[in-house]
Amino acid sequence: ELTAKVFRTYNASLTLEEELYRDKSEKELSTRMTTWSNVDKKAYFTKANFRVAELCNHQKGVGKSHTATVQKLDFNQQYTDDMIDRLKECQKIEKKSGFEAARKFFIESEKELHENWLSEHGT
Fold first, then answer.
1. 97 — alpha (psi -120 to 50), left (phi > 0) or beta?
2. Is the CA virtual torsion 7, 10, 12, 15 positive or negative?
3. pTM exceeds cut of 0.90
4. Treating both helix axes as pointing N-terminal to C-terminal, what angle do 99-121 and 66-97 enclose, rounded to 10 degrees?
5. Residue 102 CB: number of other CB atoms within 10 A?
6. What is the pLDDT of residues 68-110, one digit of tens each?
7. Is residue 51 exposed (0-12), middle (13-18) or buried (19+ Cβ within 10 Å)?
């Protein structure tokens, strides 16, 4: 029985085959793939599968929470970069003025960073 699900699966299978052999014959592709690593093969098939999902109108796009996730990653990256810079500065201060001066600098910079974050993000 030809149901919508069967048709979609059949259509996706044909489309995947077309994408895999796009611009290449089956013989040419299998000859080239013998020199590819498993990572390269997986990347090739993943790219073809992604293209099929787009063509068949499946959900393979950007998720709803993508923007928030990227913003959080950017924030974490910025925080990590700031922390590394402050720790390097602490090392310099410790060499010049001793441990207590470096500790004092670090605590003050933490307070400043916290206050800046609160002024930018509220609460």
1. alpha
2. negative
3. no
4. 160
5. 19
6. 888 888 888 888 898 899 999 999 999 999 999 999 999 999 8
7. middle
Which residue type, as a one-letter code, is found at position 67?
T
Pair of tokens at residue 93 = 């201060």
68-92 burial, b at 16+ Cβ within 10 Å, e below that, comes to eeeeeeeeeeeeeeeeeebeeebee
Q: How many CA atoms lie within 13 A of 78 on its CB side?
A: 9
- Other beta carbons less than 10 A from residue 53's beta carbon: 16
